[in-house]
Amino acid sequence: MSRDIQLKERWEQLVKILSDQFSQGEDLDLDAIIYLIGVQELGKFHQTYKKDEKLNLMHIAICRLLEPYGYYEFEFFDSDGWPHYKVKEELPPLKAGEQSVLMKDAIVNYFLEKKLIE
Question: What domain of life does the UniProt record list for this protein's source (predicted)?
Fold first, then answer.
């Protein structure tokens, strides 16, 4: 099976699982899944977040997702328990479609690692 087809199938499986669990079956988009990963990585699940905190959660998720690709490296947790990352390598300029594929691939790999999907 080609890598693109496998990524597409795994992505669809993941969207279904997460959508069923977090949005009563309405398909979650890429940003919503990134947000959920940020909440997962922070570990503070039953809390309401302000707009700037939501953006920070998405940033945490993106750093965590792209860490295995060599773009970010975990540095430390601050006194509030928020993880901080440093840039190891700048992301290359990507078109919107390429950026979307990179993030979907990173998300699929994250959930393969967490054993939510196979």
Answer: Bacteria
Helix, strand, coil proportions of the chain in percent (round to 5)? 60, 10, 30
- pTM across the whole model: 0.92
What are the pLDDT digits (tens) for 82-92? 999 999 999 99
Of residues 113, 106, 86, the one with CA closest to residue 30? 106
Helix (H/G/I), strand (E/B), else coil: 15 = helix
Q: How far is CA 117 from CA 34, 82, 112, in A?
A: 16, 27, 5
Neighbours of 112 (CB within 10 A): 13
d(CA 49, CA 71): 27
Q: Give, as one character, the DSSP assignment of residue 25.
A: T
Fill in the amino acid letter for 35: Y
Categorize the per-residue pLDDT at 104 as very low, low, confident or very high, splitting at 50, 70 and 90.
very high
List CB contacts of 83: < 8 A, sequence separation 6 or more: 41, 42, 60, 63, 64, 74, 76, 77
